[in-house]
Amino acid sequence: MRLLLVEDDHRLVAKLKPSLQRQGYAVEVADNGIDGEFLGLEEDFDLIILDLGLPQKNGLEILRQWRHRQRQTPVLILTARDAWHERVDGLKAGADDYLGKPFHTEELLARLEALARRQAGQSQNLLQWNDVTLNLDSQQATTASGDTIDLTAIEFRLLRWFLSHPTGIHSKTVLSEHVYEEEDLRDSNVIEVYINRLRQYFGRDFIETRRRQGYRLRQP
Ligand code: CA
Description:
Elements: E1 2-6, H1 10-22, E2 26-30, H2 33-42, E3 47-51, H3 59-68, E4 75-79, H4 84-92, E5 97-100, H5 105-120, E6 126-129, E7 132-135, E8 140-142, E9 148-150, H6 153-164, H7 172-179, H8 188-202, E10 207-210, E11 214-217
Parallel strand pairs: 1-2, 1-3, 3-4, 4-5
Antiparallel strand pairs: 6-7, 7-8, 8-9, 10-11
Helix pairs in contact: 2-3, 6-8, 7-8
Bound molecules: calcium ion.
């Protein structure tokens, strides 16, 4: 899952980013309104955390602009404490959830998971396909034969992406965008290595290769 964090408080970013990464998000940060708006419009994210008080352009204007331009990515806004009008304005502008500062990181993570589940239409913290189950809390997978597998961070992100979009065909480029956060670390050839690991865990035909198109989960 790719997550955009638009926040100008560098100390908060330094604290949040590692927690988000541990949770399996590939995190991109913008520290001002102009960059944040641009990234949200031009790039493809699964979730966005948007601070409202930003230099250069405030969060509400950015959110209105995204929604006006049909960007429907779930957005959680960060609002000033006790500023109830900010929350109302934010929800009206198209935010999906809000959190008042200061907040506990655990609460933010739980709300993000809830947003992601709502987006994917699931009700619990499990993703499932063809007898393979992924637990988003423990980051463990269960195979068809009932074995539990501890996934590495990249394996987890990749499997979560597949299980969240089970009927889609995904190119190596798209997969590497959603698995790696740093552009310079993206190497679409390495994706093949991880695809093969998932096949070792869940069976050779769990992920099909579509010539010149990419990869797709085996359809039932
Ligand atoms: Ca701020």
